[in-house]
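Input/output pair, single chain:
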Amino acid sequence: MSWKRGLLAALAVCGLLGGPAGCGSGDGHGRAERVSAPPVGRLLDGTDEKGRHYREVEKKNAPEIAIEVQPDSDYGWDVRLSVRHFHFSPAGAGARAVTGRGVALLYLDGRTIATLRGAEHHLSGDLVPRGTHHVTARLYADDRTVWTVHGKPVESTADITASVAGPTHGGAPTRTPASTATPAGATAGTPVAAPPRRRTTGASGNGGRARTGTGGSPDTGGKAS
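Output:
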């Protein structure tokens, strides 16, 4: 019956060490696995227009974005994003901040018009009234905090000009496309009106320069991740 005496001795030792945890029952390891991952970046007091907090990250390897907007053949606009150090999260992703992941919110003159989980989007011409407008793409984490660098959102803005809102009869509207993004800190140019009654294509002249936020501007030929 020596094994019984050994078992009793082992139990006595466990009691002295603070119960089953002192004997390496595995509970301690389970608790370690349940410890939350360290937070990404640092939450700031600043918020966007909807009150979503800024999440500050170091400039090195921070997410970057550039936007390009061109008129299409359906009286709308083709929006294309280029990103670096960033991956679009699929639908259903957990609502937590993960380094270099999330979505892009698309704004027209400061109004949210779409949540993007990919690099391309079609902007209906019905949403773009006559005049010059600002199209902005801003990067968010999956918990909807705003990725920021030096306290400024990681975003890029392109100016577009429409002389006629939406489809028309008897001729195509004149629309001026925005160019590809310029490096961070560049000043946007004033859109140049296209000749009247002439359809502007993506290959024709630029209507203005895109402005890129503090997050930086990737090479225009870069592809979104």
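Residues 82 and 222 are 6 Å apart (CA to CA). The chain has a mean pLDDT of 73.
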